[in-house]
Design brief:
CATH class of the largest domain: Alpha Beta
Distance between the termini: 40 Å
Order of helices and strands: EHEEHEHEHEHEHHEHEHHEHHE
Structural class: alpha/beta
Low-confidence stretches: 1-6, 17-56
Largest sheet: 6 strands, mixed
Helix content: 25-40%
Radius of gyration: 19 Å
Number of strands: 11
Strand order of the largest sheet: 2-3-11-8-9-10
Strand content: 5-15%
CATH architecture of the largest domain: 3-Layer(aba) Sandwich
Number of helices: 12
Number of domains: 2
CATH topology of the largest domain: Rossmann fold
Mean pLDDT: 87
Length: about 375
């Protein structure tokens, strides 16, 4: 049964093992782990600063359209079909109209509920969820989604969050009945603590992006989008650890253009595409609580090398301006990560061709409104 009360506890990261396991966490039910692809083989042609890789010499994507279609059937009773707003030329500071896919109106305020529900439902239909319940690490949004899904489905959840995560996000997680553990450091430190908890208790780890069921769940947004719009050319998505971007890319494959947008202060996919291999990056900036992975996920990398067509970066000022225009013109509250994809269009990091039909994923709303709307304007 879910936790009926909630608590916030401090965790010393010195008491946890290394933050970066050498492979995927072992399945608590003894199932074989998904392949863990290493760096791209030398000689793989990757366009500098963006562009999908040639399929030659690159392993197949670990998430497929069939997996996403199955996830959609599985999670549809538990997630919202989020709306689309189409803008006219001149609105949002853009010379062209765009379509906004409002995942910020999803349960718990972000797309993350899709992946969380899919992971838990897959486990429940298979070997079952262990008595120790669920454990996850999160900057806030994933933790809220796991806590919400756990409560809805009747399981216990414990969430490890970095001290850098906003207090309002911790409180949001706790409001869904999860036990919240605060870990000094950044996201990777919280993930190390969550890994340790899983190893010690046998709880089921729900990783935000290193899990094929989670990534397939995130891809249900693109599947849903295809039903809502007759046609479009390009989808802009914000990238953190890569699960959301990989989910959309795994669904559309070569039928649409996928553009990844990251803060210039936290750009793990952009760095990987430029280098042709996974690399650690520095993490900071206004969106670091949701787009703050030190290294792109291996599952995301297996998809991105095939189907992410372009990668761009934006500044914190660009992100803040996009948050403000969403409020000023549409009265939408978007957290920094949720406004990052739009920022790429507004600042010119991505410039559509004439007639290009563009969709922007507005993917999260979990922030203090006062950081966007001055009290005098509220």
């Amino acid at each position: 049964m879910p936790e009926t009360g909630s608590s916030v506890q401090l965790v010393d990261p010195a008491d946890t093992p290394s933050a970066t396991p050498s492979g995927p966490p072992p399945d608590p039910y003894g199932a074989p782990a998904a392949p863990w692809p290493g760096p791209a083989p030398s000689g793989v042609p990757l366009a500098a600063a963006g562009g999908a890789a040639s399929s030659a010499m690159v392993p197949e994507p670990l998430v497929t359209p069939d997996m996403i279609a199955a996830a959609r059937a599985r999670v549809s009773p538990f997630v919202r079909r989020t709306p689309i707003i189409s803008t006219r030329p001149g609105e949002l500071g853009l010379v062209h109209g765009v379509a906004l896919k409002l995942e910020l109106l999803q349960y718990t305020g972000s797309f993350k509920a899709r992946g969380a529900f899919n992971k838990i439902l897959v486990a429940a239909a298979g070997s079952g969820v262990p008595e120790a319940g669920l454990v996850a690490a999160s900057g806030g949004n994933h933790g809220a989604a796991v806590a919400y899904a756990a409560r809805r489905l009747g399981y216990r959840a414990e969430i490890f969050v970095p001290a850098s995560s906003p207090v309002m996000k911790r409180d949001r997680i706790a409001s869904f009945g999860a036990v919240v553990h605060v870990v000094e450091g950044l996201y990777d430190d919280a993930q190390a603590a969550a890994n340790a908890h899983q190893y010690e208790t046998g709880a089921m780890l729900v990783h935000p992006y290193e899990d094929v069921d989670v990534v397939a769940g995130q891809g249900t947004m693109a599947a849903e989008l295809g039903d809502q719009l007759d046609s479009y050319d390009t989808l802009l998505v914000a990238t953190g650890g890569g699960g959301f971007t990989a989910g959309q890319a795994a669904w559309v494959r070569d039928t649409r253009k996928i553009v990844s947008v990251e803060p210039i202060t936290s750009q793990c996919l952009h760095t990987a595409l430029t280098a042709g291999e996974l690399r650690d990056v520095e993490v900071s900036g206004v969106a670091s609580d949701s787009l703050g992975a030190r290294r792109l996920g291996a599952i995301a990398w297996s998809v991105a090398r095939h189907f992410v067509d372009e990668s761009v970066v934006v500044t914190d000022d660009d992100i803040r301006a996009a948050q403000r225009v969403l409020w000023d013109e549409l009265r939408l509250i978007a957290e920094p990560g949720g406004a990052t994809a739009l920022a790429a269009l507004r600042c010119g990091a991505y410039v559509p061709e004439r007639g290009e039909r563009v969709v922007v994923a507005a993917c999260g709303s979990n922030c203090d409104p006062s950081t966007i709307v001055p009290p005098s304007a509220a």
